[in-house]
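Sorry, I am new here, but would you mind making up a protein's amino acid sequence and the tokens describing how it folds?
***
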Amino acid sequence: QVHVVESGGALVQPGGSLQLSCATSRSIDDFYAIGWYRQAPGKQRELVARIFFTGESNYADSVKGRFTISRDAAENTVSLQMNNLKPEDTAVYYCNTDHRGTITGDWGQGTQVTVSS
């Protein structure tokens, strides 16, 4: 089973930036895709961004143009650069691996992102 550890969450003001990092227990080249997800209080977990083994990526409409997902095979990490943060981005952010849409890793503890003035 794949284990992941998320980090980088913080309290930030609206319009600010954060970079989240996801470390995996195996080489990221082993995975079909790795995604960042988030769960806000009282809401279901949603997919935010996903990067494939090819390097291609896709994003939820709500974050397009503001968030960028990237992968570093040498460090076995996947990062999420978040710019122009909004209060509605407040959530616990998780990463996980998947194979053609089926989650293949354990859910980690997540990292809290709070956007507030």
About this structure: The chain has a mean pLDDT of 95. The radius of gyration is 13 Å. Residues 30 and 53 are 8 Å apart (CA to CA). The longest strand covers residues 91-99.
